[in-house]
Amino acid sequence: MRPAVVCAMKGPSNRQRGVVLIFTLIVLLILTIGAVALMRSMNTSLFSAGNLAFRRDLANQGELAVANVMAEFATGDLSTSSSTLNNVPADNYSATLLPSNTEGVPTALLAQTLSAAVGTHADLIGATGDVTIRYVIDRMCSATGTPTGALCVQSTTLPTSIKAGDKNPKAPTATVYRLTVRISGPRSTQVFLQTTFTKPD
């Protein structure tokens, strides 16, 4: 009986020693790139969320101008029909429609300061001291004086208090006014708000 001969085969072990290290480094590089991209994405999202919150805060502070103007029309200088027939610069009020840009913002608000002809009312200070609020009110009319349907934008809707049995109900006219607000905040941020309202003639 012949003794068994065991042959030891030599493989390419010397060639495989650096392959695992190279694959490990490639995987590590891919993970690092993914982590950096994720961090940048999170920072961008946080920055965008912060900007939205900042803009919303300025818009909320701009409501102070709306309350101020409504008080002027309810019991202040602009509460009577005769007081709105002509310009009132002390209240930033124009009896005619102000020139506007393509976005509908009066160009008077785009300037650094209001001209004396448009308004002399001091800027309002927001809830935080670094916020200033400036506004202008313009009547949607092409000329000063008594408002008419030919010169002004007017609402002529019948009030809900008119009953079905009333004879010849006549809708009262109410001229439309436009309020535009510019809120300036830190870092040269500006937010513009605009609304319209009516006042019976």
> Residue-averaged pLDDT, rounded?
81
SSE string, helix = H, strand = E? HHEHEEEEE
The total tally of domains equals 1
Number of helices: 3
- Oligomeric state, counting identical vs distinct chains: single chain
Q: Based on CA inertia axes, which overall geometry fits?
A: elongated
Structural class per helix/strand content? alpha+beta
User: First CA to last CA: what distance?
Assistant: 129 Å
The residue fraction in helices comes out at: 25-40%
Task: From the alpha carbons, calculate the radius of gyration and give it in angstroms.
Answer: 35 Å
Low-confidence stretches: none
Sheet with the most strands?
Answer: 6 strands, mixed
DSSP summary, beta strand count: 6
Question: Which key terms come to mind for this protein?
Answer:
single chain, 201 residues, alpha+beta
Question: Can you offer a commentary on this structure?
Answer:
The protein has 201 residues and is an alpha+beta fold. 32% of the residues lie in helices and 19% in strands. The radius of gyration is 35 Å and the shape is elongated. It starts with 12 loop residues before the first helix and ends with a strand.
Topology of this structure?
Blueprint: H1 13-16, H2 19-75, E1 93-94, H3 107-110, E2 124-125, E3 132-139, E4 154-155, E5 174-185, E6 189-200
Parallel strand pairs: 1-3
Antiparallel strand pairs: 2-3, 3-5, 4-5, 5-6
